Amino acid sequence: MSLAAHLRFPKVPLSNGLQIPILGLGTSHYGGFSHDAIVYALTECGVRHIDTAKRYGCEEKLGKAIIESEIPRNDLWVTNKLWPGDYGYKAAKKACLDSCSQMRLHYFDLYLMHWPESLQSCTCSNREMRAETWRALEELYKEGVCRAIGVSNFQVHHLEELKEDCSVVPHVNQVEYHPFQQSNQLMGYCRREGIVFEGYSPLAKGQVLRNPTVLQIAEKYGHTPAQICIRWSIQNGVVTIPKSTKKKRIRENCQVFGFQLEESDMAALGSLHDGRHVTWDSTHVE
C-alpha cells in the first residue's frame, strides 16, 4: 500500500518564509544513487525533499528520476551543493547554473556551500574566498535561481565571519548529526541566529544501529533502531536526510511520524554523544 496518499511530512520555516520538509532523502557518491529508489520515494512514500550535490555525480540521473515521478515541481524541495573546487564569484555562479541545466530544473529550493575551505588555488584567505563565493549565492538568491541559500559543515566561527562579511544570513546549515555527534553548541548558535539546523548521516553510517541503548528503546516502542534515531533527530527539531538506495529502508525511514519518544528516552539518546565523526570534520578549518 502506498504511504504517499496519507503521509504528509511536517515542515520547518526558514527565516525568509519558505518551509522545508523536516524529513528528506539524501543521495551520495560511491553507489549512493538509485533511480528506482528515488522514483519509489517520491511516488510511494510521500517524500518531497531530495538532497544532492555536484560532488555526488548524479545530477543528471536524479533530474531524470524527478521527471519520471511526475510530481509537480512546486511540490518538491530540491537541495544542491556547490563543491569547493567551484568557489569564487564567477565559478560559483557558473556551477550553479550548470547544475540546474544538468538536472533540467529552473531553480533550486536550497543551494549550499558544501565546505568552509576552498579547493581553488588562490592567494586569498579561506574567509575571503567564502565571502566572495557567498556574494555569488546572494545574487543567485536575488535572481530567483535559488529560493534559499545556505552552507554545509560550517562551524560557529565560519558563520560569524560570514555574517560580518555579507548581507544575507544563511538560511540553513547542514552538518553531521546523530546520537554520537550532536553539535549542541553549533545548533544553539544557529537557532539564535535564525539559521535552520539540518542533519545528515542520522544513523552514523550504521554505527548507531548496534548501540545497546538504541536497541533497548527500539524494542520498547516496537520500531527499528533506524526509526528510533530518525525520530530522535526530528523530535529535536532537526531537518533530517537519511540516505538509502533500498526501497524497504526508504519506506521504513519515512514511518517515523506515528509515535513520540518519551523525554527519558530522548535524554538517554542524548547522552550517547562521544564526539565521533563518521564523515568530514571541519572544526580544524580556519
Automatic annotation (TrEMBL):
The keyword Oxidoreductase applies. The active site is at Y56. InterPro entries: AKR, Aldo/ket_reductase_CS, NAD(P)_OxRdtase_dom_sf, NADP_OxRdtase_dom. Keywords: Oxidoreductase. Residues 23-272 form the NADP-dependent oxidoreductase domain. Belongs to the aldo/keto reductase family. This is Oxidoreductase.
